[in-house]
Amino acid sequence: MRKKIFKGKILSLSVYKLSLGGRKVTREVIEHPGAAAMLAIENGKLLLVKQHRFPHGFVLEIPAGTLNKGESPQKCAFRELKEETGYEAKKMTPLVKYYPSIGYNTEVIHCFAASGIKKVSGLELDEDEIISVVKIDFSKVLKMILSGKIADSKTICAVLTYAMKKKIYV
Q1: Positions marked active-site
Q2: Which domains occur in the chain, in start order?
């Protein structure tokens, strides 16, 4: 049995009562449509966004966004890259897919590697987004992850997966 107890702009919260292994259990689940994130590199520099993420303040992360209803992760990746950085990509290649909070959240994040990127416009931000674009050498980003200066999970997962696939080490 499911009882929705909250519905917000991008997520909802439901309480499930179910039987597992003959035992009655209750699970509180955050329901989220999922997201797409893009790793975009131009001349050895990673395109990051410096974004305000309440309650943590400003963080460095790869461009990303929530999937619209019926939107594929790849289409979302193309859209968000352009909106948050002003860049377009010729191609998006799947990099890694993961669940950031698997125990209580349905969100899945699809990370892509963008190729053939080109600056085509200014930023097209949502009303509540405070974002600037930052370009940092890929090797420096790896060091920032290892030192804890970058703590965003989608950025860590995408950058480390890409580094392993390309055999890039610090």
Answers
A1: 127
A2: 1-31 (no CATH), 36-166 (3.90.79.10)
